[in-house]
Amino acid sequence: MLLVPLLLGVAASLPNAWQLVLAGAALTGYLTSTTLQAWSRARRPPGYRSPIVVYGAIFAVLGLVLAAAFPSLLLALIVVVPTAIIVFRGAQPGTRRDLANSFVQVAQVLVLVPAAAYVSGEVDIEPIVAYTAVAAVYLVGTVLVVRSVLRERGNSSFAALSAGFHAIATMLALMLLPAGYALLGAGLTARAIALPIVQRRRASGAHPLRPIQVGTVEIVASIAVVVVSFAVPI
C-alpha cells in the first residue's frame, strides 16, 4: 500500500532523490501508525513505547525536512490527519476492523502519488491524476480481493462484488487508457475470480489457502501494476 502509490508517483514524473526521503517518511509514518494501533489494541502496555518513540522521531525529522523543502506538502495533512484519526479509532480494543476502515487507509496512502511527483519537480497534473486513479482502483480492488478470501471467505456475494468491481474497472481501462492497462485489468479480474474459488475448494482439505499465499499473489499483482505503469506511460 506504500510502494505502489510511491512508485506510480515516480512514473507520473521523474526519479529524484527527494522521493527517497518521502519514502522514508512514509515508511516510518506507517510503522508509527501500526505500532500505535497495536499498542491501543493491546490496552497500552509499556513495551510498545520504545518503538513508537523511535519510529515517531524519525518520521518527525523526515517530515520536517520535507515540509521545509516543500511547504505545499503540508496540504496532504487535509487527508492524512482525519484518516489517521479514523484508523486509530478503528484500532480500539473490541473494535472490528471493517471495510470502511480499509478504504480510509487507501485514501490515506493515495496522497503519496501526487506527493512523489511534486517533490521530483516535474508537476504535470494530467498524468498525476491518471496514475492516482490507477493506484486507487488497484488498492480498492486489493482490499476487496483479500477480504473476499479472508474475513469474508465463503461469502459468495462479496466475492461477486469483488469480481464485478474488477470487471468494471477493466472496461473503463479499455475505454480510457492504453491497451496495456486493459490487459492488466483482465489479469487482476482473473485473480479476483480465481482466489475465492481456490479458497472454497481448499477450505475443507489438508492445505487451505493461507494469508501468506494470498499475500504472495498480491505482491505479484503489485509488481504487474508498477511494471505496466512504467512501461506504458499515460
Describe the protein in words.
The chain is an all-alpha fold and 234 residues long. The protein folds into two domains: 1-114, no CATH class; 124-234. It is 77% helix and 0% strand. The protein is built from ten helices and no strands. It has helices at residues 3-11, 17-41, 49-69, 77-89, 99-110, 112-120, 125-149, 156-176, 179-202, 211-231. Helix 7 runs antiparallel to helix 10. The protein is flat and about 55 Å long. The two termini are 21 Å apart. The model has no long low-confidence stretch (mean pLDDT 93).
DSSP helical segment count? 10
* H/E series: HHHHHHHHHH
Average per-residue pLDDT, rounded, comes to: 93
Q: What summary fits the major beta sheet?
A: none
Which structural class is indicated by helix and strand composition? mainly alpha
Shape: flat
Could you give the topology of this structure?
Elements: H1 3-11, H2 17-41, H3 49-69, H4 77-89, H5 99-110, H6 112-120, H7 125-149, H8 156-176, H9 179-202, H10 211-231
Helix pairs in contact: 1-6, 1-7, 1-10, 2-3, 2-6, 4-5, 5-7, 7-8, 7-9, 7-10, 8-9, 9-10
What would the keywords be for this entry?
2 domains; 234 residues; flat; mainly alpha
Entry summary:
This protein folds into two domains: 1-114, no CATH class; 124-234. It is 77% helix and 0% strand. The chain has helices at residues 3-11, 17-41, 49-69, 77-89, 99-110, 112-120, 125-149, 156-176, 179-202, 211-231.
